[in-house]
Design brief:
The chain is of the alpha/beta class. The chain has 10 helices and 10 strands.
Length: 294
């Protein structure tokens, strides 16, 4: 089978009944220990789906390797980009920037049978279903201001002063947008339209690299970092849209919290130095619906 027709073959494959809706993020496989963990990830049921909420890796070959492997093993893999996938890393032979890099990744991953934010939102009809899985790519707009600041400029200045500056400032290029917040606003506009067009009677599982609300960032060790973690523009989406669960990563603080009755689950693995200290998330693949696990 060629890679070009793999996704077609997948959609023709009958979906086994049963199975679980699983999620993970921040696999960061440029670390060998994390790559070893990914090599061992397997479904426990032929009907298992896996939602991957960003930060797989920085290099395109690594991103494709990991998601290709998972797409061969799981009944369906759904991916959203993290900031690390969007970096134009100096070691990556693919030197595309911004929107062009994102579109390149979408095209490559589609060939592997992976569902991206640019595809129709798939319907989970396993246990607890039907729920619609909505992979979102929303980015951030610096509106989670640093303490004591009320504008993007002041917030960024506070971050530079404290030395807590996200590497995105060097490597996540917004081309052709003038800045990352403009790109974010456009993504929010497009995504809001798509969610509004969904059948309101079918609950949604929203998957995004960043939480849709600010509260999960309140426990960050460095509060200045919150400005690279989402946007105030999505603060009411979990109540405006019929949301069964919200899945995110990025903060590297795996946990379950509830806002307005909606479970928000951070499903990150994180860097080896982080999980070595606190232990691996157990289980690493979180069942996110129908039963969120803390
Ligand atoms: Fe990460
Ligand atoms: Fe991230």
């Amino acid at each position: 089978m060629t890679t070009e027709n793999r996704s077609d073959a997948r959609s023709e494959r009958p979906t086994p009944t049963g199975g679980r809706l699983l999620a993970v993020s921040d696999l960061h496989i440029s670390y060998q220990e994390n790559r070893d963990l990914v090599e061992k990830l397997r479904p426990s049921h032929p009907g298992d789906w896996l939602l991957v909420a960003g930060d797989v890796a920085e290099l395109t070959t690594s991103i494709e390797w990991a998601l290709g492997l998972l797409a061969e093993r799981f009944a369906r893999v759904v991916w959203v980009p993290g900031n690390h996938e969007l970096w134009t890393h100096p070691e990556d032979p693919v030197q595309l920037r911004g929107v062009a890099r994102y579109e390149h990744l979408v095209e490559r991953l589609r060939r592997l049978g992976v569902v991206t934010p640019e595809d129709p939102f798939p319907l989970w009809e396993g246990p607890g279903g039907p729920v619609r899985i909505a992979p979102l790519f929303l980015l951030y707009d610096y509106s989670f201001h640093a303490p004591g600041t009320t504008t993007k400029e002041a917030s960024l200045a506070a971050a530079y002063e404290s030395g807590i500056v996200c590497a995105d400032e060097r490597m996540l290029h917004p081309d052709p947008f003038p800045d990352r917040d403009s790109w974010c606003r456009e993504r929010v506009r497009l995504t809001e339209k798509r969610l509004a067009a969904c059948d309101p009677d079918v609950p949604l599982v929203l998957v995004n690299h960043y939480p849709l609300v600010r509260q999960p960032t309140d426990i960050l060790w460095y509060p200045e970092f919150a400005q690279w973690c989402g946007t105030e523009l999505t603060a009411d989406w979990h109540t405006r849209f019929n949301t069964a669960a919200m899945i995110y990563g990025h903060l590297h603080i795996p946990r379950l919290t509830t806002y307005d009755g909606v479970p928000f689950t951070e499903v990150s693995l994180g860097y080896p130095r982080e999980w070595r200290k606190r232990g691996l998330p157990d289980p690493l693949l979180r069942e996110v619906f129908p039963q969120a696990t803390g």
